[in-house]
Specification:
This protein is an alpha+beta fold. The protein has a domain of 77 residues. Helices cover 48% and strands 21% of the residues. The protein is built from 5 helices and 5 strands; from the N terminus they run αβββαβαααβ. The chain has a 3-stranded antiparallel β-sheet with strand order 2-3-4, covered by helices on one side. Helix 4 packs across helix 5. The longest helix is centred in the C-terminal third of the chain and has 17 residues. The radius of gyration is 16 Å and the shape is elongated.
Amino acid sequence: MLYKKKEKFLIYKPLREIEHWEVNDDKVKLFFSHDKMVVRFIRWIIKKTNVSDLQLDQRGSTVWQLCDGTNTVYDIAKVMMEKFSETEQVSIDTISTFLRYMSGRGWITFDNKSK
């Protein structure tokens, strides 16, 4: 049963949900707006702006750029295997964990419809 779930996950197509991001020197930087009143107030107290950013490493940047809704999880894993000389299993495990983390944070969604 677990194998079937993992196999099905490989055909999902991740899609970015964050609109504000940029690429500099092959590294992706994500920008987050903090617009909830409580968060804005706390950030005002500690003298932080209402926008924060997060720079991804080379692997994360590669994955992020491939999350365009056209590539499956397996397609992304194949690119990572070639680019970083990983085995198929290591690539799939790493990508799956990272994509699930980003999905949990609301940074990506999955199109899991078979076409």
